[in-house]
Every structure is written in structure tokens, then in C-alpha cells.
Amino acid sequence: MNYTDYIKEIEERKAQGLHPKPIDGAELLSEIISQIKDSDNKYREDSLKFFIYNTLPGTTSAAGVKAKFLKEIILGESVVPEISPAFAFEQLSHMKGGPSIKVLLDLALGEDASIAADAAKVLKTQVFLYEADMERIENAYKEGSAIAKELLESYAQAEFFTKLPEVEEEIKVVTYIAGVGDISTDLLSPGADAHSRSDRELHGQCIFEHNKKMQQEVLALKEQHPDKRVMLIAEKGTMGVGSSRMSGVNNVALWTGIPSSPYVPFINIAPVIAGTNGIAPIFLTTVGVTGGIGIDLKNWVQQKDENGNTIVDEEGEPILKEVYSVATGTVLTINTKKKKLYNGDKELKDISDALTPQKMEFIRAGGSYAVVFGKKLQTLACKILGIDIPQVYAPSKEISIEGQGLTAVEKIFNKNAVGNTPGKTLHAGSNVRVEVNIVGSQDTTGLMTSQELEMMAATIISPIVDAGYQSGCHTASVWDDKSKANIPRLMKFMNDFGLITGRDPKGQYHAMTDVIHKVLNDLTVDDWDIIIGGDSHTRMSKGVAFGADSGTVALALATGEATMPIPESVKVTFKGQMRSFMDFRDVVHATQQQMLKQFDGENVFQGRVIEVHIGTLTSDQAFTFTDWTAEMKAKASICISEEETLIESLEIARDRIQIMIKKGMDNEKQMLQGLVDKANKRIEELKTGIKPALKPDADAKYYAEVVIDLDEIAEPMIADPDVNNEDVSKRYTHDTIRPLSYYGGTKQVDLGFIGSCMIHKGDMQILAKMLKNIEAQQGKVEFKAPLVVAPPTYNIVDELKAEGDWEILEKYAGFVFDDNNPKAVARTKYENKLYLERPGCNLCMGNQEKAEPGDTVMATSTRLFQGRVVKDTDGKKGESLLSSTPVVVLSTILGRTPTMEEYEAAVEGIVLTKFKPSQKELVLQ
């Protein structure tokens, strides 16, 4: 982009009420610098402002040009009256690594002693230094440089942290109720606006789903309380359920937070967020990235009778009592020393969990990255100096209970931990740094991840990481102008960074829009692996996987590490026998229903790891369970498998990776081949018994143990958004699970959707068999509602084609995707026919295509939040009911929910699942 184009863009943005877009390109900034140097240039004044206040930091090409020009000013090679050498140094101090560090090192290790001292002063405040930067300092130190020694000693003492101001003792907040009940990240950053996430100011306009009234209310509170921060609250619910959206926290920070730098626009930090039932685990991590505070209010509690039993209403729901009010406009005080929440002098709640020593460090440093990189820098400096690491940061909490066995997650964390006390066994609650094996980036948060990588000055994937993958699944259904502009740029950046990418920037292999979770599930070839992915459904059926915000993904890619407490676990086992006409999806829903029933409505899964003793199901089918654990509000899940099942799962994964290699997707480092070798090694270990499948110890301690009775599952189970519940807080949760008979075979269904990460190849085969069954029974297949089908991966399509099932699906389809002519416009109207869509997320994502407003949708997907899959109309709320593939198929054939008789007839002769509880002992004695 040149300057003329930039001015034109500025005018276009002005019409939208937006400021100039921050500059990230070298070409534009070079032209701006030329205009600054020309004292008579008519654009000089604006150019100065753009250069100083509107250039992105880190490793953007613009940052490289800016750092070079600032260096010229410091050395006196260029003279700009408005930018003194001291001001040039100040700007370099805000540029976060990369080219700015190179310039500062050039100056610090240069000939001019005065300049070197000034450069060293700035360098002592920086944390985004990488191995190459430290190598320069080390070499200079070995050659006797006093400045290099001074820098290393400063880094060894972590002065970049210790010289920061302390966190203020009292933080005044004014409350704003953003919603009653669970608040999904869609409210804060709607999926339909995913295309604008990397343009932070533009994306900020979509907060509260573009509700201008709510936006004005927040602005009015800020105006009335200029000395306070606005605290966004989920009343009677959990804040940030659903996706792991960094853009959601970014939006909250933009509206309520504090600017991170005067020279970098629209990047705010330190938001304060709260919920009656706290913050969703992944979202809480994201709050930490921005140095914010997330509070579990517990301002509504369940009523108990004299025997301590929960009092319920006529519907069997617990009756809640308000302990204290946080109504909009309430002024509260967070005391960071006492770690309590006050209303005036009245203590409301102990909030120690929100203000742990580690979280206080994040707040002080302006975010978790600065702490993570600071610790790494301190370690490197001490290693060069040959000294022990001084205890500057709060010691990691280490909990070790003698005589207590380990859960599966405790075992994985102990194996992968770094920096903890050598030889010490850690239990749940311990804070640990762990090495990460697999990292996944998806395409609607990927642009933000690439920005984060630029801002932390990272240029290549960490050698610790076995594999990184960049998907194209969230923008797969519509190849529109936004996708054409964003996705190739993202794929090139990630490919250059060292990831395997769904699209080849060189165009040498077919574009793969496979659902990222399915790909990561295949790339995970060890049951002891740790996986980090930019989506809440990063929940593999091998190893342990954590959904994360775009920033945490960037951190994992750059450092190969993640930092978190070892979560508590809830053990889930099964008894009884499944009826032949039940689908495994029904087991998944019943698990949630039975758990809530067993624990009087308390969700014991929330924020914990579900250790599911799945035993006999291979990873494809088991993934249906682990995937849904995001809706159970669990932090993660781990499948405990029998050896034979795990071997089969690893062989399937290995063979699919080999298909990726055959397609030409491997990179120069042969990342995929490395996974094949790792899979073969693990399979051999299992077959020979050298290293058995991961199992918890028999004497491990769990927060709770849940036993699911399969005999109780007598009919298909449906997750219902309950859109008309009088209690608003009960709407759009995933906790209302109803049997098929509840609907009496009469509830109208306007559209069906089979797709998303919740389905696997078996679901596509079930669909094909059901269509044949229905044709045999009724003479033809006629749809009374549209049925949209999106296979999760191209591999599945290829396998179905080879086995003949795809031909059956095409026979009944009214639309079949064509990669040579992909859709350029999102569908808004649907006919009563079968649509075979391109592999990818499709309707589940809600960012490109949606059902028609007001529709009742029956879907296999994961999300039932308001407006996600279907918007409301003035006269009717959109509903997204979630169920198994057979129920979706039949609902579209009938145009309504089926009766049990109709359902049993339609699945006759079809093997829906082979799941049986394991008869083996899946623990180590």
C-alpha cells in the first residue's frame, strides 16, 4: 500500500467512525519517512503522527523500517526536530523486540559510550529477546564488554520486572451486567465478525453483538466514573463460555481497559471481568494474557434446608438466593493486598483465587507474556554468567502429597514439566511450565496469532514442538472476498514460520479445509502428549489438549511451552449396556445429564479435567466425548484406553499423516515424517509392553467420581437451548438435556445440520445407510426440511468415495460442493433437499453461513448459543437443538422430531456404535 491508498482508506474508515488503521507494511512507512525528511512536504505533519503513534511494533516489516530510522536519528545521521535522540530511544523501548532489539544491541555494543549507555538503559527494560539476541550479548561478554556484563547482570536479577511499579492496592470498579446466565464469547466477539478480528478498532464495534445501546451504557459509566474501571459481569452465570476468543477479551479491554502504550493504538490491557459462577477456564487464561482480573463472584447461592439438602423449585431446579448485589452501576473496590472485594467498607468476598502471586505478576507486568519471556530471559542470563537463578518471581506452587497416587493429567504434567524442583512429584494445584508437543492455529484467530507472534518478535516455530498446524476450516464454506484477502496471507505467514498449513502458499497441493480438531487428533501420536490449540474444542482423545486464545497459541509456537496449574480431575466410568438403537452421542449427553443429577445440579466438571475411562472406543469415536467436554465446561479431558484400542487409534492416525505426506504437505524439516516415526515408536512400545498405555494410579485422588449407567439411556438425548424458559439464566446453556419423547413427535424442525468436529466417518456412513433404509421403507427419500452436511475432512470424503458411500450421498443430494468453483456468497435461503458442503466447520461456526432467522435447527454440532447458528426474528426465537446423526436425518425427512417408533424403524439394522464399558482394569495398582 502506498500513501495515496492509505489516505483513501483513512477517508473510508472515517465514514465508519474509525481512526486510521495501524501501519504494518514497510512500503508505506518508507514513504512516510521520506515525507518526514522533506521539511516542505504537505503531508509531513500527518506523516510524523503516523510514524510515532500509528506503527505496529515487533517483527512487522514496518517495525523494521521504523527501528532503522530511529537508529539514524540517535546516531545523528538524520535530524528530525520533533524526534530527539532521547525520544527515539523512548519509542524503541515500546517496540517489543525483533528489529528494535537488533538496533538497541547495535548501539549498546557500538563505539559511542554515551549512546551505548542510553541503549543499555532501554535494553534493561526489555524482555522479548531470543536466543540469537542473547548469543550476541554472550559473545560480547566473553570478549570483555562491560556493557554486555551489565546487561546480563540486570537480566539475571530480572530488573525488567523488579523495577516496574507495584500493583495499586485498591482498584475501584463500577459494575455492568452484560447478561443474565452464561455469557458466551459470541456476545463479546461474534463469530460473524471473525474476518475483522485483526483490525482491533473495527472489531471493537461488534461487542455485545453490535448492540449500540449496551455500548453507550458502558461509555456512560466510564464518563460518570472516570477514576474507575468498568467490570463486565455475567449475572447468575459463567463469563466467557464457548470459544477461547482472545478477540473477546481484546474487545472488553478496548472498551474498559487501559492503553498498553501511547505509541501503539487500540491495544488495551487490564480488563476486569466477573461472573456469578466465575470465568470459563480458557477465557480466564486469556484474561491473564492481558494482565486483567477475572473474579468468581458467587453472589447467588443455592438454598439449603436444615439437613443441608438443596431446595428445588417445581421444575427440580435449585432455588438461588442473592448474597449481595452487583447491579449495573454498583461501585466496588478490589483490594489487591487483602485479596478481597468490598462495597464501601463491607467485605463481600475473598477473591484470593483471582489474585494469586502468579496472577499478580501478570497484572504488574501488563500481561502473562512479559512474565513468561522474563523468566526465560533470566534463566538464559544466569546460565551465561554461570550463577544460580535468584528468586525474583513468586515461586511456583508445588503440591506434593506423599503416598497419594497420580491421576492421568498429573502423570502427563509430571512427565512434561520443566523448571520445577528436580525429583519432586507434583499433584493437582501445582503451577507448572510444561513442554508442548502439538500446537494448532485456526483461521479466524490465526491472523491474531500471527500478529501476536510479530509483537513478541518470534520468527520461527520452537524446536521443542513436534508439529504445528494452521487450518482453513472456519472459513471453508464461503470463499468470499474477505477470505481471499485474509487466508492466503495467513497461510504464507504460518508456512514461513514453520507450520504445516491447510493451504499451500505455493499452490502445490490441494487446499485442505479439514476441521482443525480432527487434524490435531490425527497429529497426536502419543497418549502422553500435551496439545495447545486456538479453539475451545482442542480436546484430543489421545494425550491431554487445552483450548487456548490466539496469544497462548502464539506463546506455545514461539517457546514450545505453556504455563498453568495442574487441574483437578473428575473420573468418569460406565456400567450397564447400550441399547442397539442408541448412538454414542446419546451417551455423551446422558453423561452430562446424569452428572448434574448425581450432584444436585452442581457441575463438578467445570474447570476440571474429565478423565473418561473409555476403554474400547478408537480415537475417532472417543473424540465425540472429549469434544463435548467443552460444553460440559471442563478444562480438558483424557481418554483412558485399552492397549489394543490405543494401538488401533495410533495406526489410524499414522496412516492419515502418511496420506498428508503423500499429498505434499510435509515441510523442509519433515515435521510430518517425524510424527510417523514417533507413532511407530509408540506402537512398538505398546506391543512389546515396554511402556504401557497411560493409566492413572489406583490410589489417585479425584475431585469427584461419576458412574454413567448405560441401562438408563432408553432413547435419544437432545441438548435443548430452552429459549423460552422464564428464568433467562437457564436459556442457552448446554445443561438442559431432554429425551426424544419430550417433544412428542410434534416439534417442527426447519433445518438439519450434520457436521462440525462432533462427527466422524461413522456418522457419514450412518447417514448413507439411513437414506437407503428410508428409500426401502417409503419408496423414495423426500426431505421436508433442508439437510446440510459438511464432512469434517477430505480424508473422510476420499474414504467414502473409495467405499461407495459418497456415491449414495450424491444420489440424494441437491447440491454437491465443487472445489474448482467454491461458493463466493453465503447461503441465506435453503430448499428442502440435501446439501453436501465442503469439508469444514460450516454452520457450527456461524461466521459465514447461518440457518434462516427464526428457524428451529436440529444439528450434530456443539453450539446452541443465541444467534450462533440461527438468529432470532421479531416473532420467533431461533433454536439450535443438538442431537445424534440419526435424529437429525429423520427430523429433516419428517420436518419434525420423530417418535421413538419412527426412530427405531429408521435405524433398524444399522450399527450405531460398538461401545461397551471396558472389562479390564484401567488403573495401575
Explained architecture:
This protein is 37% helix and 15% strand. The protein is α/β, with parallel strands linked by helices and 925 residues long. The strands form nine sheets. It has a seven-stranded mixed β-sheet with strand order 8-7-3-1-11-12-13, with helices on one face. Strands 30-31-29-28-32-33 form a six-stranded parallel β-sheet. The mean pLDDT is 94.
Alpha carbon gap, first and last residue? 66 Å
For the biggest sheet, the summary is: 7 strands, mixed
Main sheet strand line-up: 8-7-3-1-11-12-13
Helix proportion range: 25-40%
Global geometry: globular
Specify Rg, calculated over alpha carbons: 28 Å
* Overall mean pLDDT: 94
User: Which structural category fits the helices and strands?
Assistant: alpha/beta
What share of the residues does DSSP label as strand, in percent? 15-25%
Number of strands: 33
Low-confidence stretches: none
Q: Tally the helices.
A: 31
Task: Summarize the model shown.
This protein is an alpha/beta fold. It is built from 31 helices and 33 strands. The model has no long low-confidence stretch (mean pLDDT 94).
Topology:
Blueprint: H1 3-15, H2 26-37, H3 44-53, H4 61-74, H5 85-93, H6 99-108, H7 113-123, H8 131-142, H9 146-156, H10 159-162, E1 170-180, E2 183-184, H11 185-188, H12 200-204, H13 212-224, E3 229-235, E4 239-241, H14 246-256, E5 258-259, E6 268-269, E7 272-275, H15 281-289, E8 293-296, E9 300-302, E10 320-322, E11 331-335, E12 340-343, E13 346-350, H16 357-365, H17 368-385, H18 408-416, E14 417-418, E15 431-435, E16 438-441, H19 446-455, E17 467-470, H20 481-497, E18 500-501, H21 516-523, E19 530-533, E20 544-547, H22 550-559, E21 561-565, E22 569-575, H23 584-598, E23 609-615, H24 619-628, E24 636-641, H25 643-662, H26 671-688, E25 704-709, E26 717-719, E27 737-739, E28 751-754, H27 761-778, E29 787-789, H28 794-803, H29 805-812, E30 813-816, E31 834-836, E32 856-859, E33 879-882, H30 885-894, H31 900-906
Helix pairs in contact: 2-3, 2-4, 4-5, 4-6, 5-7, 6-7, 8-9, 9-17, 16-17, 19-22, 23-24, 25-26, 27-29, 27-30
